[in-house]
Design a protein that fits this description.
By secondary structure, the protein is of the alpha/beta class. The chain folds into three domains: 92 residues, GTPase HflX, N-terminal domain (Rossmann fold, 3-Layer(aba) Sandwich); 167 residues, P-loop containing nucleotide triphosphate hydrolases (Rossmann fold); 67 residues, Alpha-Beta Plaits. It is built from 14 helices and 15 strands. The strands form three sheets. The protein has a seven-stranded mixed β-sheet with strand order 6-7-5-8-9-11-10, with helices on both faces. It has a four-stranded parallel β-sheet with strand order 2-1-3-4, sandwiched between helices. Strands 13-14-12-15 form a four-stranded antiparallel β-sheet. Helix 1 packs parallel to helix 4. The longest helix has 39 residues. The relative contact order is 0.08.
């Protein structure tokens, strides 16, 4: 964009590092899927056993020579590393391999750029890309002279770099201002839902776990769903009617991945706040995935990063159609509360169990029933109407109100206390069975 680089392309050689540190370990199969999702044609896969990364190339100089020969032999246009490269390592590798070099962060950013469909999504991706690019801008101007400090010796390189850095800073500031506006609009919408007493449920999970497929199956929406990583980028909200509970708002969100770049988490904070402000999280898990435990850990790590680790979570084990001897079911804890539901979103198996479990968990915090309020409690009646908690109203022979209500227990108890009564005694006297 701002500098000359080796041309990009689709024919790629993938480089995977096998190290001893389990915390930094990446999954080679997931790496292949990332490359496929980005549209790369993989012409080679190189495993490198590297326990002490090189400061210059990350890998050893012998492997660099071997990669150079492979690039020429396979006519590769791109080499992708399943690891984060420093700007200098990326620059040194491009010079040595004579082709474009991309690291794991750059690959994920490219996929996000392809998937962004809404204006907000495109802004978020551009912000992440510009912040990633700002640390790599210097490489493009190495062919220009540097400032020498004397008359007639000042080259254009440093001036151009400073210009580009300034333009980047200006654009980044503009995007952040626009995203702040989006964030405030989202917060207004959330406040409106809270005032209307509509609970929000957010789907979270590892990428390609089946969140969008489950979302479509539950809401009869037509969100794009595909067997590829990061098929969903822009959040989608739909109204879902649950028996005995009423309407809830269901949100489909971007998938998480191992070592999700921090710049992406920061850029997508407005989107991820749909999850951090939810009343309940549905953690969709690929039950058929051999490394599902590691994927669960990664999702919980990202939830902690966005401040959502304390929210109630219902685990949805998806893709039971790929497993033998597993039927759709609800698993409960010692108190009888749902903690896990086994389903097949693709085949529509267990969807009623998901609705039932969500209604049970959200219903615990709601009072759903019929109250008989005498005329002296007219103020409470008016306040229940203000909270949009009255489903219907009738009157008894004494002129009192008979209200079918759906109200958060904390709000109801607050209203009862204002009348100088104890909630348990009040409900025993005024609730119709």
């Amino acid at each position: 964009m701002f500098f000359e680089r080796p041309g990009g392309g689709e024919r790629a050689i993938l480089v995977h590092l096998e190290g001893q540190d389990p915390a930094a370990r990446e999954d080679p199969q997931e790496f292949r899927e990332l490359a496929r999702s980005a549209g790369a044609e993989t012409v080679g896969f190189v495993n490198v056993a590297r326990h002490q990364p090189s400061a210059k190339f990350l890998i050893g100089s012998g492997k660099v020579d071997e990669l150079h020969d492979l690039v020429k032999q396979d006519e590769a246009e791109l080499v992708i590393f399943n690891h984060t490269l420093t700007p200098s390592q990326e620059r040194n590798l491009e010079r040595a391999l004579e082709c474009r070099v991309l690291d794991r962060t750059g690959l994920i950013l490219d996929i996000f750029a392809q998937r962004a469909r809404t204006h907000e999504g495109k802004l978020q991706v551009e912000l992440a890309q510009l912040e990633h690019m700002s640390t790599r801008l210097v490489r493009g101007w190495t062919h220009l002279e540097r400032q020498k400090g004397g008359i007639g010796l000042r080259g254009p390189g440093e001036t151009q770099l400073e210009t580009d850095r300034r333009l980047l800073r200006v654009r980044i500031r503009q995007i952040k201002q626009r995203l702040e506006k989006v964030q405030s609009q989202r917060e207004q919408a959330r406040r409106g839902r809270r005032r209307a007493d509509i609970p929000s449920v957010s789907l979270v999970g590892y990428t390609n776990a089946g969140k969008s497929t489950l979302f479509n199956a539950l809401t009869e929406a037509e969100v794009y769903a595909a067997n590829q990583l990061f098929a969903t980028l822009d959040p989608t909200l739909r109204r879902l009617e649950l028996e005995d509970l009423g309407p809830v708002v269901l949100a489909d969100t971007v998938g998480f991945i191992r070592h999700l770049p921090h710049k992406l988490v920061e850029s997508f904070r407005a989107t991820l706040e749909e999850s951090s402000n939810a009343d309940l999280l549905l953690h969709v898990i690929d039950a058929h995935e051999p490394e599902r435990e590691q994927q669960i850990e990664q999702v919980l790590a990202v939830l902690a990063e966005i401040g959502a680790e304390t929210l109630p979570i219902l685990e949805i084990y998806n893709k039971v159609d790929l497993m033998e001897g597993i039927e759709p079911q609800i698993q409960r804890d010692a108190d009888g509360n749902p903690v896990r539901v086994w389903v097949s979103a693709r085949d529509g198996l267990g969807l009623d169990l998901v609705r039932q479990a969500v209604a049970e968990l959200l219903g615990d915090d709601l009072f759903i029933g019929t109250l008989r309020l005498p005329q002296r409690l007219g103020r409470m009646r008016a306040q229940l109407f203000e909270l949009n908690s009255v489903q219907s109203e009738d009157h008894d022979e004494q002129g009192g109100s008979v209200l079918a209500v759906r109200v958060p227990r904390v709000e109801l108890y607050r209203l009862i206390s204002r009348e100088g009564m104890k909630p348990a005694e009040f409900l025993e006297q005024h609730t119709l069975q």
